[in-house]
Amino acid sequence: MPRAERERQMLEVAGGIFAKRGYNAASMDEIAAAIDVSKPMLYAYFGSKEGLFLAAVEYATARVMEDLEAAVAGDLAPEERLWRGFLAVFKFIEESGEAWAILYPRGPMSSVEFADRARSSNEAMAALLTRLLAETAVEQGVDPEVARRETEPIAEALVGTVEGLAGWWLRHPEEPKELQALRLMNFAWMGLGNLLGGRLWQPPPSREPGRG
Amino acid sequence: MPRAERERQMLEVAGGIFAKRGYNAASMDEIAAAIDVSKPMLYAYFGSKEGLFLAAVEYATARVMEDLEAAVAGDLAPEERLWRGFLAVFKFIEESGEAWAILYPRGPMSSVEFADRARSSNEAMAALLTRLLAETAVEQGVDPEVARRETEPIAEALVGTVEGLAGWWLRHPEEPKELQALRLMNFAWMGLGNLLGGRLWQPPPSREPGRG
Amino acid sequence: MPRAERERQMLEVAGGIFAKRGYNAASMDEIAAAIDVSKPMLYAYFGSKEGLFLAAVEYATARVMEDLEAAVAGDLAPEERLWRGFLAVFKFIEESGEAWAILYPRGPMSSVEFADRARSSNEAMAALLTRLLAETAVEQGVDPEVARRETEPIAEALVGTVEGLAGWWLRHPEEPKELQALRLMNFAWMGLGNLLGGRLWQPPPSREPGRG
Amino acid sequence: MPRAERERQMLEVAGGIFAKRGYNAASMDEIAAAIDVSKPMLYAYFGSKEGLFLAAVEYATARVMEDLEAAVAGDLAPEERLWRGFLAVFKFIEESGEAWAILYPRGPMSSVEFADRARSSNEAMAALLTRLLAETAVEQGVDPEVARRETEPIAEALVGTVEGLAGWWLRHPEEPKELQALRLMNFAWMGLGNLLGGRLWQPPPSREPGRG
DNA sequence: GATGAATGAGATTTCATTCAT
DNA sequence: AATGAATGAAATCTCATTCAT
């Protein structure tokens, strides 16, 4: 088995265990046994438990970002882009729940030691959104200075929004992912002001956003 | 020192250490030393490390919720309420960053074992928002069935939004809290549709920040 | 409550807990709570856990010995004496199983540290038997030198015999104590040689021991 | 060092320490140091302190039982068999006092938690005796129903007898083991009825001790 | 005389990590 | 290249025991 292939497999299994047990409760013993590899091998590949964990996080991040970037690529209206991005993320969660769970474990008691370095996914998503929002804003005539200053925090807030709804969805898995994306459009695109006024957002075929 | 007082002090110090180190890396030894109490005392009061942690979470939750509830109490317009709620939360974060950090540690690798029981803060905030949103929606003539179904997930998303922006703010502490609240109003109340169209939200007269 | 009375009560409760949990697993906390006394009181009365334990053992010993001595007192034939002694012991076990269980806990893993000082019961019973056997032997014309040398080890063996059968009885509590005493007479008085030859011992009314 | 060999060594040393200190007072630290092995090795082999202890008990049991079964094997008269069995047991005690002491610690304050599972030796010996006694009794024409009912408790009593005399012997180690076996024959085979009548048991010709 | 509150010391157990083979 | 065997270090938790009141 080629090294890259083997590494990929290790990261997937390890990621699953980290997601299920949490960083500390996941033992190198258990991981090695699940991969069917000796512990020294794990160390040869990743150097330490921390190294393995970070590699698993990066691997998972890369996969979400691939899906997400593919979804928002091309010449699309901002609204359409947001809609497709939301759909892509919830599709990813549905299909690779474990990978998402490493990135956003929900629930406290993390081991903060290397939280910074493990935030790669958050940053990648926020960066993508920041770029998109900034471009669009400028296209739409928003003051460039304002756009520069405001898009990054807004993008971070938006990632938090997705994470928050994803957490709720985990407890209501019977609902389809499209409904989650639709909710986010209503909340994030329309805003509560419109929602509470009864103005809802319509999915693509007849897409027409904005306030009434 | 009366028992209640001592307990409060323990919870504050322990909360700070849990927030700084994470659940696993925080050792009972370190916590006891920081409180200047013997370890057995900790066990006498809280039974176990888990018990101590959960008590600290509850204590922090109770404090945010007090502030938040006070801020949104009274006969206020929905918009005003949201605005004041946001302000209250960011004020809390500014003053009690550690308490917030225990509740929303940001960053992966949690110890999943008792994540459920530690979600009290999220649930409390989401429940408050759910109630407010539902009431307002119905007042505004939204179909009650829709309101019933949609407010809870939207509320969870909103909590995530706050958490997301708070995370960003932690890395940009030079900005005033009012600016964060203003951002959230623009994002969550107006929606991206309006924002990208250049339509911004104005804070109510008797307050200060924002841009016209 | 007079001190002696209170002390007696403490020893009974403590003895019960020691018997149920074993020396180490019985905590001073549990014992104090069961007696409904504060821990410092326990220390005031008995000095230490070890002191409490030894006092409980002595108390239990004193009680068996009272019963046993009463049973074998008076001018009785050796056989009759043995029979009455056995009956007394099994009666005691039936009525005060816990006291017996401190003295003969059956099963390994004792905490040998102060085993010597805790053997008081064994010694007391063995001493009583030694005296009786020696007297009888001499009366029956056994060489006094032999009697002197042999009675003590035989008495210890006999105590072991009683303990062994008591252990079996604990697992077959449905049988009456008289049957246990009868068995011991057959074994200890008649001997296996007679038993295997089919010669059994008859209880008192028609008592007639010896070999066929 | 091959695993089996190492395990045997561990069990012997651990057994010795358990016997000397008792289960609770023996610490894993001390045991590991005495074997000259790290504590984690102990856990790798036996899982827990309890596991180690039980393994040591089983090991000791297996060794007594080997000797005992070898001694009573073959076509022997009941009397001869008993005599040889006693000799074997006392020989074992003389040579492996520690192993015997783990099985029959004499002295109170056991940790009752797993007393049941630690009684293996008692049960093994009692089972062997039960079988032998039952066979012999039937051969000798004893009512089979009586034999079935009585042999087990008698066997347990007999094990207690051996234990009792062994306890005495520990305090009088200057006497030879043959004398102990002879005593037991006189007590258990002849019975006190005969003893007190001055009728003693004679060892079989080809052996030595005893008094005519 | 009596106790609530407190602690020093030590027990078992687990784990990331590394040699010797 | 790969691993079985081994360990140093540390974590949680418990308990007998004692002051200060």
CATH topology title of one domain in chain A: Tetracycline Repressor, domain 2
Percent helix range of chain A: over 70%
pLDDT averaged residue by residue of chain A:
81
In CATH, the homologous superfamily of one domain in chain A goes by the name: Tetracycline Repressor, domain 2
Extended strand count of chain A = 0
Shape of chain A: elongated
Number of helices, counting only DSSP H or I runs of 4 residues or more of chain A = 9
| Secondary-structure arrangement, i.e. CATH architecture of one domain in chain A | Orthogonal Bundle
The interface involving the most residues is between: A-B, 74 and 74 residues
Let me know the largest β-sheet of chain A.
none
| Terminal Cα span of chain A | 60 Å
Q: Specify the CATH class of one domain in chain A.
A: Mainly Alpha
Strand content of chain A: under 5%
Structural class of chain A: mainly alpha
Q: Identify the quaternary structure here.
A: homotetramer
Following the backbone from N to C, one meets helices and strands of chain A in this order, namely HHHHHHHHH
Q: Gyration radius of chain A, to the nearest Å?
A: 19 Å
